[in-house]
Amino acid sequence: MIERKYIARGEWDYYDFLINKYFWIKHGLDNAIGIRKKNLIDIVAILEENNVIYWLQGKTLLGVFKNGCLIEDDHDDDLSIWIGQKELVISIFQTHLSSIGFKKIRENEHMISFERDFRYIDICFFRSYSSKIVGYGDKRFPAKYFNSLDTIKFEGISFNIPSNTSDLLKKMYPEYFGEIKIRIFKILSKFYTVLFSPQKILKKVLSKLSSIMIRFPSFINILISPITQLFGIKYQELSLEDFLNLKVEPTDSFNWKWRARHLNIVTNDREFIIVKDILTYLSSKSVINSIENSIEESELIIPFNIPSNLDMDFWWSGNNYFWYCIKYKFRKGVIPYADVNKYLINKTNKPIPYSSDYYDSLEKMNEEMIKSFLSKFPIEITDNAVIGGKHRVFAMIGRLLDEEKYIPFKVIKINN
Q1: Per-residue confidence of the chain (416 residues) as pLDDT tens digits?
Q2: 111 CB-contact burial (10 Å; exposed 0-12 / middle 13-18 / buried 19+)
Q3: How far apart are CA 113 and CA 416, in angstroms?
Q4: CA distances from 326 to 195, 255, 316, 378 (A)
């Protein structure tokens, strides 16, 4: 099994599923096939032993039926059961599946998901919507395909599949059967729905507005601020008092899991998350010495899979990112994460990015440079917590620790 540095705890967040996806893209989707087969075979065997009526679903069904194999780039594997057996499956997990290494990573009204060896299987809960229509979530199918089940051999084992699967799959995945016109119609239907739904358009526009404002010159943000405030987005200067009372990360943020190594070392394992409390914590020389002795520099040597920010090695090979912002404060030309691969590709006798040697090689910013920099690149705040610009916040903490002058941030403040 390929080594994983990050292990998700409990049920998965949206980002855990993304991380899983990019992990296997990086380490080879073909390397997951053996795990997927074993997981599928073991779960199906236990379902059958406990008289659960199941069948292959989705692209798992498509791959096995059409090609006799699992589709390599499928992000999960799918089974379905009738909703009436949901509680039985939950009971089976507690008594059987957990004992052979499966973890429950998701449960909602539409499905339950089990993971082992960093691959997961969704078990979808089918229900009847009429005498002719069945399905789960927002997916609907003709009931005639599920009133009785057929079987198919895969890896020498019989698996249940819907009756007349060939006809069903043509309806589910026309693009795999040469019926391109139907696929184009589906795409156009979705486009039409979005285009003529003002609420959806407005929601998409507002979700992008704050990220667009970050790229605007400050005078434009000042001009448009009366309008953006109507949508709960305000452009302003951040006073010292407001800065001291900021949370460095929202309390419910996924980053407390994903960036844990880097955040924990500067927050004492999340004990201090408000700027003024972090300043108090770091005012002790013994704390500083302890942190310095605990620092492991990230091993940023070869390019990462895009997006690098979701690459496990990027965040879990060290713990220095935020501490070095505090220690080295504002430096000229620090490369953003999005450009780290360009640096690594062209790295000839250059320091490892974000290492102590790297920061030592960069020129210190003076007050005028910092003022211009903070004006040009606002940080983002929502619910009094930083959601964009964390490194600048930690760099300012470093200035205050050294009893240097606070320089006001420009802020895009989002009122949820």
Answers
A1: 788 999 998 899 999 999 999 999 999 999 999 999 999 999 999 999 999 999 999 999 999 999 999 999 999 999 999 999 999 999 999 999 999 999 999 999 999 999 999 999 999 999 999 999 999 999 999 999 999 999 999 999 999 999 999 999 998 988 766 655 555 545 555 555 555 556 656 556 665 666 666 667 776 767 676 766 666 677 789 999 999 999 999 999 999 999 999 999 999 999 999 999 999 999 999 999 999 999 999 999 888 888 888 999 999 999 999 999 999 999 999 999 989 999 999 878 889 999 999 999 999 999 999 999 999 999 999 999 999 999 999 999 999 999 999 999 999 888 76
A2: buried
A3: 31
A4: 46, 19, 19, 19
The residues of the chain that CATH labels 3.30.460.40 are 14-163
pTM confidence score: 0.83
Tokens of 287: 């704390």
- 14-163 CATH fold: Beta Polymerase; domain 2 (3.30.460)
